[in-house]
Request: fold
Amino acid sequence: MKKILINFLCCFIPFSRTRHRLKHFAKGCEKLIVIEDGKERMARIGEFPRIFVTGSGVNNIIKVELPCHPKMSAHISWMNSNNNCVVFHKNILGTWNVSCYSSDNSVEIGEETTSCDVSITLIGNKLEIGRDCMFSNSIRIWGDGHSVLDFKSGEVLNKPKHPIVIGDHCWIGERTTLTKGAQIPNNCIVGIASVVTKSFINENCLIAGSPACIKKKGITWSRFNPLDYERKIKEIIK
Reply:
């Protein structure tokens, strides 16, 4: 019934980005849900013009918590996959690209988190990103796309064992890659071009390298540049 209604609407809409989005919305997303004051409702078509959905599948859900930052944009692809869920909490900013190449994936991005450019590719994975995180450019988060097998038994050795987790208030540097099994605790910094392949447990750390390891402990960070931060601290002391 939904596809019939959207096809009917498209007959009266000139070929444009809106019409293009309506077609793809019918193919790939069963529900686009708004979370407002703790309550959920179905979104209206065109309510989020910067969220694009392509691909195909059934029972795929996108949830957006209000307020939604006007400069938040997302391109979500279901690659013949089902039962996926992507949740954007309130006041998220930046560009998010999410591709699900299998069924039963989930992505949850915490409030006040910002991104310059993040590409998320999931294949049987769950991704949890905390609140007030900061992502730089050209960051990749992905699961394995092919199987690694035991030569004798044929057992699959690289199945995901736990979610990919990025805690609250984490700063992820430019060109960082996080693979399946990566877990970053709260209040950490991940250095430029790092490759994170494992779980870390210590908060307030600088993590860097390929493969990534702890370079410094007992740190935290601010969105202000160093000069502005020092100036504000001096003003508070006065």
About this structure: The chain has one domain: 2-237. The first helix runs from residue 2 to 10. The first strand starts at residue 31 and ends at 36.
